[in-house]
Write a structure and sequence with these properties.
Shape: globular
Strand order of the largest sheet: 12-11-15-14-13-16-17
Number of helices: 14
Largest sheet: 7 strands, antiparallel
Helix content: 25-40%
Number of strands: 26
């Protein structure tokens, strides 16, 4: 039972840290208040805010919780769980909640400004001039007022323009402004009843949106709205990336930003992606489409609300290579899937025969780490930690192989990927609420069509200038050719990318699954288009691919491919750009360095030189084409890992000569401070 001034055993069990927390917070409150009192303030003036940083046991992402208004024993725990659910989209059942630290903020609020007083009306001020301006209703004659001519009591009705020395105020139709006694401008925003424009706005924001295919077809494309939606979709993908960088803990994702985020239609078509890692992009679309088809096959359970999918298999599930794990989340509306959000991140270790899961001498896929064809990472709102842990540790059952060497980073980064997808869902749902599902879906199609038309136009222009066929070939270091013949239909802008003549798959790991070739081509085409368009599935709509089976670019299901994503992809880009006479080749690979031991694995791509073009010199010491990651800062590299960075500099004179000089490569000299396995995977 509860005695006077004590806690019941039940309440203490719900909140075992309560007594300790209140003691620590009281100490901080007194310390902060005392500091303000010494500055001359009274305790009655001081406002106290209390915060607790909390996290689930075994995780690394602490969430700052403001003191809840409720006073029951579970208030802090309930607030944390609600915040975690909102941020990550799932809960960790049966996991203790830990307190990292306590914080107190003591403030003395400033004086509240008195409300604006209405001045006696004195009518409309004299206009300094007039101009014509375009509004929803068309062209209007608009009076122009100078701010310095305005006096308290003056009033104006829109449309009007008020000019200040440092800014301009546009008073729109249906709005009114008055000058207050303090000289401020108080604007009342409103709509005139009966206005057709306002009726359109009302219907746009009506909750009862028609989401049928007929409604989507009835939405008319508007160039201004096309640009707005294009940037809105891109902004959502970029916000997903910021969430992922903020919540991830591995150096690979948090510092090097080796991840990509994108939005997809309900059938898995790429709509918009943030400008992250080009080699992920075409492959991500293949991964989403595979999951949609896989889970909706007859006899399977389908995809339900509250579920999150995960995969990484390059040949079977649209992956790029095993370290790139894709997390896919469906977006539901009225019980139906309307979109997908997805994030693909490079995990620094997922097992295999070498630390860093990028072995230069692997000959089969099982040498390269854990394989995931299809798995539900979240079911019924619960993170499936046991199931994904078993998958990540499975390679350790093979002789000479190892499971993941850093499970904690894997799990934390997977949770971060789910959180990134969840942030995209919130923003997409907000967009649907704002414009209606029919409008959002229509503009997704318009944006894809715009990209398709842009690529068709570029192909027709190239064919008109250089002929309707282009050809290029280049060799890997082992002599394997990558050959491409491009045939363009000058009338339609369709093109066939025929890789016949490319060498057979190799007993090594620089085989590349078809999704990697799609990514390299979609990136190249987007780079060749001279317009600012989102990179999406529309870029590949005019393209027909011919990739011979069991070739370097279409290997068997069990072939080693870890190098294909980071070496061969770069050579495919070089070949495509060579065929289109765009620029010289880059350094031809991503220069992959891995090191580690049984306890950890580290991975980075080292910069190189970019190829020159007809009118420009090649850039030196940059990540080119299909990479686009950062390199780890020296301070972080040396703080997190047992190494010293002795030298990192341009390798002067290493760029190719010519009318335009190629970019120089780099020298990166690293000294291990204890025995480590170090590997270079390079061309």
């Amino acid at each position: 039972g509860k005695g006077e001034g004590g806690e019941s055993e039940e309440e203490e069990g719900k909140d075992p840290s309560r007594a300790n927390r209140e003691e620590r917070l009281a100490h901080l409150v007194e310390k902060a208040s005392k500091a303000l009192v010494e500055q001359g303030y009274t305790r009655d003036e001081i406002v106290i805010e209390k915060f607790v940083n909390m996290r689930y046991q075994g995780t690394d992402n602490a969430i700052m919780i403001h003191e809840p208004s409720a006073t029951d024993a579970s208030a802090y725990g309930d607030a944390f769980r609600a915040h975690y659910q909102r941020e990550f989209g799932f809960e960790l059942e049966g996991r203790d909640i830990l307190v990292d630290d306590y914080r107190v903020r003591a403030v003395v609020p400033g004086a509240v400004p008195h409300p604006c007083e209405t001045a006696p009306p004195i009518g409309v001020p004299p206009a300094a001039g007039a101009t014509r301006a375009y509004f929803e209703t068309g062209w209007e004659e608009v009076p122009v007022y100078k701010f310095e001519d305005l006096k308290p009591g003056h009033s104006m009705v829109g449309p009007a323009i008020i000019v200040q020395s440092i800014s301009t105020i546009l008073l729109e139709i249906g709005c009114a402004a008055v000058v207050t006694s303090d000289g401020d401008i108080d604007i009342t925003v409103g709509h005139e009843s009966g206005d057709d424009v306002d009726d359109d706005i009302k219907s746009l924001h009506d909750d009862d949106h028609d989401t049928s295919e007929e409604a989507v077809k009835e939405v008319k494309e508007d160039p201004v709205q096309l640009s707005i939606f294009s940037h809105r979709f891109m902004g959502i993908a970029e916000q997903m990336g910021r969430t992922l960088a903020r919540t991830a803990i591995s150096v690979n994702m948090k510092e090097r930003l080796d991840f990509s985020c994108a939005l997809f239609t309900r059938d898995g078509g790429l709509v918009a992606n943030a400008p992250h890692i080009p080699v992920h992009l075409g492959a991500m679309q293949a991964a989403v489409k595979f999951q949609v088809d896989y889970w909706n096959e007859e006899g399977r359970e389908g995809i339900k609300e509250g579920e999150v999918l995960v995969s990484n298999h390059p040949q079977l599930a649209g992956g790029s290579h095993l370290p790139d794990i894709t997390v896919i989340t469906p977006v539901f509306h009225d019980g139906n899937i309307i979109f997908f959000t997805a994030s693909r991140g490079h995990h620094a270790d997922i097992g295999g025969i070498a630390p860093g899961s990028m072995p230069p001498h692997s000959t089969s896929l099982e040498d390269e780490g854990a394989m995931i064809v299809a798995f539900k990472l979240v079911r019924d709102g619960q993170f499936q930690e046991r199931g994904i842990t078993e998958i990540l540790e499975a390679p350790g059952k093979l002789e000479g192989n190892s499971g993941t060497r850093n499970l904690r980073d894997n799990l934390s980064d997977l949770r971060a990927q789910v959180a990134a997808n969840n942030s995209g869902i919130r923003l997409l749902q907000q967009l649907v609420y704002e414009y209606g599902l029919a409008t959002v879906e229509a503009y997704m199609k318009f944006i894809q069509n715009n990209a398709e038309m842009s690529v068709r136009g570029m192909l027709r222009d190239f064919a008109a200038e250089h002929g309707n066929e282009a050809h290029a070939v280049d060799l890997m270091d082992d002599g394997t050719p990558i050959e491409l013949t491009v045939s363009i239909d000058e009338d339609t802008g369709d093109a066939t990318f025929d890789f016949t003549g490319t060498g057979p798959q190799v007993l090594g790991n620089h085989n590349a699954p078809p999704a990697v070739t799609y990514s390299a081509v979609i990136y190249s085409l987007r780079s060749l288009v001279g317009q600012d368009i989102p990179l999406n599935q529309g870029c590949l709509a005019p393209i027909h691919f011919v990739i011979p089976k069991f070739s370097l670019l279409n290997p068997s299901d069990d072939a080693g491919v870890v190098g294909g994503n980071v070496l061969t992809s770069q050579r495919v880009v070089d070949v495509v750009l060579k065929a289109f006479k765009a620029c010289a080749a880059s350094q031809g690979c991503m220069n992959n360095l891995t090191f580690g031991d049984r306890r950890f694995g580290y991975y980075e791509t080292i910069a190189g030189g970019a190829g020159a073009g007809p009118t420009w010199e090649g850039r030196s010491g940059v990540h080119t084409h299909c990479t686009n990651t950062r390199i780890t800062d020296p301070e972080i590299l040396e703080r997190r890992y047992p190494v010293l960075l002795r030298r990192f500099a341009l390798r002067e004179g290493s760029g190719g000569g010519g009318k335009r000089k190629g970019g120089d490569g780099v020298v990166r000299e690293i000294e291990p401070l204890r025995p480590l396995v170090m590997s270079i995977l390079s061309e």
